[in-house]
């Protein structure tokens, strides 16, 4: 009798564990879509998770981040006002879902900071920090160490704007985050990004390598290391890292874009064209990449495609009227 009563309880607990694990996998897949610059698919996946689990505040945070990153990925086609408005609405819903989760306050801090409202940005950072309780022992930390450290790293990231960062505020947070959770790749990625803003490629690569070690299956660190080499014009050193990123995830769009740019700079036009095309297929037509793709098409002699793509660009952004010139040359 007792055994028959226990069995349904165990079944319910096990089912709950399975559901939580599947949701975590779905969230990770959505995050990877954002990182792969497939923003529409990421938004679709995150909205599906919100519909399934509307009280999970983390989903709102990642959806808000997706809105912001989509803007910064293509500031020509997108509007900062529209992107920050959409992100703010989502972050506020995240706060309503769980007022004690620091992440959505960090999101609101980013929105305010990007719009030049430093006072509100600092208030939101302080609000986020207020939920990271003082601790003596990491094992007794609240929220759990992984969440605590990630929140600190995201607060540090919120000090980045216009390719500048206040390192006196960001670095202490990142050092504390690493001390709490030294196996979190995101902390090292953010630290590496800040070093890149400081033009310190050596420390950037050091942190990207630590991120890769923490998560060997992620393509992001490889892509970022490749970018460091490409920026320093060490093109041959950059290529293997971009190729490795694609090997880890064949749908990782940024690596195709970087290879497209790299081969264009090297004068290998046909390869450049192919990589840009793959990038555009994955990302649904990023305008800056599309302009570079048109240049590759022109030098490859694919004039009909030049004209078609120029028409698509001008339909979105008429300020790019100089593109008519390359279309005119292609028509002859």
What does this structure look like?
With 332 residues, this protein is mostly helical. The protein has a domain at 23-131: Tetratricopeptide repeat domain (Serine Threonine Protein Phosphatase 5, Tetratricopeptide repeat). The chain has 17 helices and 2 strands. It has helices spanning 2-35, 39-52, 57-73, 80-97, 103-114, 118-130, 145-157, 167-180, 185-197, 201-214, 220-231, 235-248, 253-265, 269-283, 287-299, 303-316, 323-331, and strands at residues 160-161, 164-165. The chain has a two-stranded antiparallel sheet. The longest helix is centred in the N-terminal third of the chain and has 34 residues, at 2-35. The protein starts with a helix and ends with a helix. The model is unreliable at 15-20 (pLDDT under 50).
Distance between the termini: 88 Å
Largest sheet: 2 strands, antiparallel
How many strand elements?
Answer: 2
Low-confidence stretches: 15-20
What is the helix content? over 70%
The CATH topology of the domain at 23-131, please? Serine Threonine Protein Phosphatase 5, Tetratricopeptide repeat
For this structure, what is the CATH class of the domain at 23-131?
A: Mainly Alpha
Structural class: mainly alpha
**What value does the Rg take, in angstroms?**
22 Å
Count of DSSP-assigned helices: 17
Principal-axis shape equals globular
Q: What percentage of amino acids are in beta strands? A: under 5%
